[in-house]
Structures are given as C-alpha cells and as structure tokens.
Amino acid sequence: MSKKKVVIGMSGGVDSSVAAWMLKEQGYEVIGLFMKNWEDDDDSEFCSSRQDWIDAASVADVVGVDIEAVNFAAEYKDRVFAEFLREYQAGRTPNPDVLCNAEIKFKAFLDHAMHLGADLIATGHYARVRENAGKFELLKAVDATKDQSYFLHRLNQAQLSKTLFPLGEIPKTEVRKLAEKLALPNAAKKDSTGICFIGERPFRDFLNRYLSYKPGPMKLDDGTTVGEHVGLSFYTLGQRKGIGIGGLKTHRNADGTSEPWFVARKDIENNTLYIVQGHDHPWLLSSSLVAAQASWVAGVAPEARLMAAKTRYRQADVACGIVPSGDDRFELRFDDPQWAATPGQSAVLYDGDVCLGGGIIDSVTAV
Questions:
Q1: Between 3.30.460.80, 3.40.366.10, 1.10.260.40, 3.40.50.620, what CATH number should domain 5-181 receive?
Q2: Could you say which of 32, 93, 178, 190 has the lowest number of CB atoms within 10 Å?
Q3: Superfamily for 283-366?
C-alpha cells in the first residue's frame, strides 16, 4: 500500500517546519510548498520572502522532504489585496488573514497541491479537524493561547476534508522544543507578525501609496470640532494611539487622573471622525451587530439559539444569541455589551470548541 501524499505549506517559520517533520514521522509522503504571495517592493527591508524561502529550503533539507516554490502573487493581489483596499477605502477595517486563508492557502494552494497528486494538504495553523457523523468540524487548538480557528472560519466541507493541522494537539512550547531538538536551522526564528506586504513598516505610510484619502473634521460626541483627521481609512474603532489630538483639554477625575481618548465612530457620508474620552464610553459599546458574507463550516446556518462568539482575534468567547436573516446575513445580540466591535472585522461563532463559521461585521448597534 502506497503512502498518502501530503503537500504542506512551508513558510520558513518554526510552526510549519515542525509540522512537516511531524507528518513525515507519521508515515506520510511529504512535499513542501513555499508560497510567494507578494512582489511589490520585495527587495525592501520590510518583506522577508527571500530569507523565508532560504529558511524553508534549509528546513526541508534537514527534515528530508522535497520542496518547491510557487508564485501566487497575482491571485493574492486580485483576490485578497484588492478587497483589502476596497474595505479600507469604504472606512472599514478588514482582516486580510481571513481572506488569505479562504482564497489562497485553502483555494489556490489546495488546487495546486491536487495537481501535484496530493491526497491531502497541511499547514502550520493551530487548529483541529474532526470528522463527526460524516461531517467535518473545525475545532479550536488544544493550546488556547495560539488557537487560529478565528482566521479559518470560512473554510468549507470540501476544504476541511482535505486538510491536516498537525500542530492542533500540541502546545507552542512543545513546538519550540522540538525545533531545537531537531536542530532545525530556524529553531530560534521569531514568529512573524502581520502580513508580508505590510511587515514592520508604518501602516499609514503603506496605505498612503494605494488609497485616495481626504482630511476632514474630528469631533467629540457633543459635536464640538477639536481637530482634523488625515483620512478615515487610517483610523480604526477603539484606536487609542496616533489619533493626533495633542493639546486637547481632557476631563480630569477627582484624583487628578484623566481618561484616554479613543476613536469611536466614523461618519463616512460626512467624512467626520468622532472621538470620545474613556474606555467605557457608551459609543464604544455594542449590544448587537449585523454581519454579512456569512460562511458556515457545515454548509448551513445554525438555528437561532444561544452560543458564543468572538468579534476580534484573541478575545475571550462571549455569550450571544444568533438570529439568521437572509442567505448570507445574521444578527448577534450580546448579554454583555461588546467593546469596539468593528465593521470589516470577523464575527466568528463557536459551540464549545467547535467553530461554526461567521461573517464580516457590517454594522453595530450602540448600547
């Protein structure tokens, strides 16, 4: 009986490197695939794809697997980056990692792997897949601090049926220990933060190159104009730093302390940014939200009931009720108001450890 062939995405990072070794240990025929997803200013200090490829190839050599590079830059620009810019131009705050997983890593990559004769694909994500009564479920990782199911919630049955997540059952600390024990050349490499095309560069400078923007008034909740914003695209709800309100008088508490300022609303129609003082200002709290572009792992929306949701990554699950409304929309109602729920971000639903799917936040209702 021939071994099952698994094509694994190898980024040059520690997680996918250890995952490749684990698959080989489990008896699979393993092929590494390095995805190049960005070409603009690829020679700059901010994008490390060349070094990442060297690291991935070096690891493949140590682990003993073949590796090839594939260029998905055109697909990435068309399917992910164009949507990313559209959302920012419309004043929302998108999450490109969610779109990248759905459109590149589990679509373009999956298609390419199948052309290579793969039976399955794998990645270094921290999540799990379980077959249950003929259906495939997406589960949180055992290591709750690294769980990435939030970013994978748009995966469907066809994609999950072909996917392995070798790291889903082990803690990140164990992954680092394995990398050191195996003497992988990238064992001490830092985890990547963000996405390659932004890297560590100043985000506003980056967006400046691609977006048209127009300054406009910055106002308080009572309508008082206190300054000028540089373009609504450059702000996100709940933002505290970099608002540009130096010298604005603040209300001081009895003990002399003052509350920080936060971005609270964007009035797209009138190109106005509203800021408020205090983390718990009512404008920053939402009792409900409506999400669009719904995507359900099981292929159908869950019935209206109580469950749990995340409205941003690294947030604890919060109790909510869901009310499906139409083919690709749903409403979430929260027992406890949610802080800075942001249009463009994902609202992801869970039943315990099972990720049910979610949608893109379209609008929120303040308390």
A1: 3.40.50.620
A2: 190
A3: Translation factors (2.40.30.10)
35 is in an annotated binding site: yes
What's the pLDDT score for residue 208?
83
Which pLDDT belongs to residue 78?
93
Q: Is 15 annotated as a binding residue?
A: yes
As a whole number, the mean pLDDT across the chain is: 91
Distance of CA 236 to the CA centre of its chain: 16
**Model confidence band, residue 205 (pLDDT cutoffs 50, 70, 90):** confident
How many whole angstroms separate alpha carbon 278 and alpha carbon 367?
A: 15
What superfamily does domain 214-279 belong to in CATH? Adenine nucleotide alpha hydrolases-like domains (2.30.30.280)
Q: What are the residue numbers of the active site?
A: 100, 196
Q: What is the pLDDT of residues 170-186, one digit of tens each?
A: 999 999 999 999 999 99
The 10s digit of each residue's pLDDT in 243-293 is 988 666 666 665 666 789 999 999 999 999 999 999 999 999 999 999 999
How many whole angstroms separate alpha carbon 245 and alpha carbon 255? 23
Q: What is the pLDDT of residue 41?
A: 61
Distance in angstroms (rounded) separating the CA atoms of residues 255 and 79: 52
Residue 318 annotated as part of some ligand binding site? no
Are 4 and 120 spatial neighbours (Cβ–Cβ below 8 Å)?
A: yes
- Please report, rounded to a whole number, the percentage of residues in the chain having pLDDT higher than 90: 76
Is 124 labeled as ligand-binding? yes
| pTM exceeds cut of 0.85 | yes
Is the predicted pLDDT of residue 198 greater than 90, yes or no?
Answer: no
Topology agreement, domain 5-181 and domain 214-279: no
